[in-house]
Write a structure and sequence with these properties.
By secondary structure, the protein is an alpha+beta fold. It contains 17 helices and 23 strands. The chain folds into two domains: 246 residues, Glutamine Phosphoribosylpyrophosphate, subunit 1, domain 1, CATH 3.60.20; 182 residues, Rossmann fold (3-Layer(aba) Sandwich).
Length: 469
C-alpha cells in the first residue's frame, strides 16, 4: 500500500536528508547518526537507514539497517547496539524518483573487487537514465536502479581503475548533472560531495574528535557540534587517516567545470528547519524578511496577523513588524497525529487537517485576519484553513503567501506535482482566491526573493522556469 501523510499531502516535499560521522577508533557513531537523523526527520518520513563500519576492522565489514517509517520506528535500542563502528552514514527519505518501497531506502551499501562503500544521497541526477543505460550495457545496473544506485555504480566502476576512492568519486561526479548532496563511506574514509550549482545543501562540522556532514546545520548543532562551514558547490571533501586523538587529514578538491551557483530557494521558504543556517543565510531571518517584503508590497487593513504553523510563523512575524498590525497566535497544532498507510479520501484529508490544526476562536472572532503561509500547491488545505477561520468568527480572511506561485516542475529532488496539479498553473490569482474562499490573495513577488537571501545566487525554476542544469 502507498504511504500517505494526510497532513502534508498539500505541501511540497524534499527528497531526503543525509548525515555522516567519522570518529576515532573505539568510538561508536550509530547513536550520533540516529539523533542526527531525528534532527533531519522533517526532510523525509518514508524510510530511514544507517550504515556503519569499524576502521580497525576487516575491509568490507559494513553493517546496515534500514526500514520503512520514521527514524524512531525503524531503529530499536538493540539495533543501534548492533551497529558497531566508528564511521558511518545515515539517511531519511521522501521518495521522488522510485517508489515508496524498502528496496529504495538508503544507505546504498555495496561490495566490489577493491572494497566496499555505503552512500547516502539527497537530490536527483537528471542524466541518471543515460548513465543507467551505459551501466546496464556493462552489466552493472538493472532497470529499477534508483539515482542513488546509479551514482554508486559510477563510483565503483571508476574505483576499479583508480588509486583511491576519492579519485573515483571525483571522476564519477564530473559526469553527473542535477542537484545532489552525497556522503560516502568507505572502510577508512568519509567523503562528502555537493553538486557544482550548490542546489542541495551540505554542511561540514565537528564535535570534539569527530567530524560530521549533514544536510542542515541544525543537525550538527543538535549533537553539540560546531559548524565549520558549508561544503562548497562542486566540492569533494574527504576525511581520512584519523588517529585515536582525533587528528585527521582533510582533503578538498573541486569537480572540474565552472558552473554557476544556484541554491534552492525553497530551502529557505519551507524545507529547512528555521534554526538552520545554509550557505551563511539564516533560514529564520530569510522567512522574516519574506514577511517584510509581503507587507511592503501589499497594504491591507486588518486587525491581526497569524501564521500557519510551522513555516508560516516567521513570515507572519516579519509581516507584523513591517505593517504594524499585531501578531496573534490563532492555531493550536497537534504534534501527535500519526501517519496513515491508507490512500486518503477527500473526507479523510479534511478530517486530517482538523486533527492537526484547530483555530482558537477567542483570537479571531470578529477580527479581520491576515493569514500567512509559505506556499499554496493544490489549494485544498488552504481552503479548509480559511473555512475554519470563518467558522470561528473571522469576518475577513486575507491570505498572503511567502513564496511566488508554483508554476513549473522541479527536476532536482523536490516533489513538485505536475503542472496540472499546481493550482496557480491552472488558475489566475483571482480564481485561486475564489477557490480557497479568501477575501484577497497575494503572493511574494519574484523580484522579492532576493530580499530573503541577499546576493546568494538561487534556483527558482519552479517559479520562473529558469533551470540551471
Amino acid at each position: 500500500m502507498e504511504s500517505i501523510n494526510f497532513i502534508t499531502d498539500d505541501k511540497l516535499h524534499e527528497e531526503c536528508g543525509v548525515f555522516g560521522v567519522y570518529a576515532p577508533s573505539g568510538c561508536e557513531v550509530a547513536k550520533d547518526i540516529y539523533y542526527g537523523l531525528i534532527s533531519l526527520q522533517h526532510r523525509g518520513q518514508e524510510s530511514a537507514g544507517i550504515s556503519v563500519s569499524d576502521t580497525d576492522g576487516p575491509m568490507g565489514n559494513i553493517r546496515t539497517k534500514k526500514g520503512m517509517g520514521l527514524v524512531s520506528e525503524v531503529f530499536s535500542k538493540n539495533d543501534l547496539n548492533e551497529l558497531s563502528g566508528n564511521i558511518g552514514v545515515g539517511h531519511v527519505r521522501y521518495s521522488t524518483t522510485g517508489g515508496s518501497l524498502l528496496e529504495n531506502a538508503q544507505p546504498i551499501a555495496m561490495n566490489y573487487i577493491k572494497g566496499s562503500l555505503a552512500l547516502v544521497h539527497n537530490g536527483n541526477i537528471v542524466n541518471a537514465g543515460e548513465l543507467k543505460e551505459a551501466q546496464m550495457y556493462r552489466g552493472q545496473a538493472h532497470y529499477t536502479s534508483s539515482d542513488s544506485e546509479v551514482l554508486s555504480y559510477e563510483i565503483i566502476s571508476e574505483r576499479v581503475k583508480t588509486g583511491s576512492i576519492e579519485e573515483a568519486v571525483e571522476k564519477a561526479a564530473s559526469r553527473l548533472k542535477g542537484g545532489y548532496a552525497c556522503v560516502i563511506m568507505s572502510p577508512r574514509k568519509l567523503i562528502a560531495v555537493r553538486d557544482p550549482n550548490g542546489i542541495k545543501p551540505l554542511v561540514f562540522g565537528k564535535r570534539e574528535n569527530a567530524y560530521m556532514f549533514a544536510s542542515e546545520s541544525a543537525a550538527i548543532k543538535a549533537l553539540g557540534g560546531e559548524v565549520l562551514r558549508d561544503v562548497k558547490p562542486g566540492e569533494i571533501v574527504t576525511v581520512t587517516d584519523m588517529t585515536k586523538d582525533g587528528n585527521a587529514r582533510i582533503k578538498s578538491v573541486m569537480i572540474p567545470g565552472n558552473e554557476t551557483e544556484a541554491h534552492c530557494i525553497f530551502e529557505y521558504i519551507y524545507f529547512a528547519r528555521s534554526d538552520s543556517v545554509i550557505d551563511k543565510v539564516s533560514v529564520y531571518e530569510a522567512r522574516v524578511r519574506a514577511g517584510h517584503a509581503l507587507a511592503k508590497a501589499n497594504e491591507t487593513q486588518a486587525d491581526i496577523v497569524v501564521g500557519v504553523p510551522d513555516s508560516g510563523l516567521a513570515a507572519a512575524e516579519g509581516f507584523a513588524q513591517e505593517s504594524g498590525i499585531p501578531l496573534a497566535v490563532a492555531f493550536h497544532k497537534n504534534s501527535y497525529v500519526g501517519r496513515s498507510f491508507i490512500k486518503p479520501t477527500d473526507e479523510q484529508r479534511r478530517m486530517a487537517v482538523r486533527m492537526k490544526l484547530s483555530v482558537q476562536g477567542d483570537v479571531v472572532r470578529g477580527k479581520r485576519v491576515i493569514l500567512i503561509d509559505d506556499s499554496i500547491v493544490r489549494g485544498t488545505t488552504m481552503r479548509q484553513i480559511v473555512e475554519m477561520l470563518r467558522e470561528e468568527g473571522a469576518v475577513e480572511v486575507h491570505v498572503r503567501v511567502s513564496s511566488p506561485p508554483f508554476l513549473y516542475p522541479c527536476y532536482y529532488g523536490t516533489d513538485v506535482p505536475s503542472s496540472g496539479q499546481l493550482i496557480a498553473s491552472q488558475h489566475s490569482t483571482e480564481e485561486v482566491c475564489k477557490r480557497i474562499g479568501s477575501d484577497t490573495l497575494e503572493y511574494l513577488r519574484l523580484q522579492d526573493l532576493s530580499a530573503m537571501v541577499g546576493d546568494l545566487p538561487i534556483c527558482a525554476a519552479c517559479f520562473d522556469n529558469s533551470y540551471p542544469v
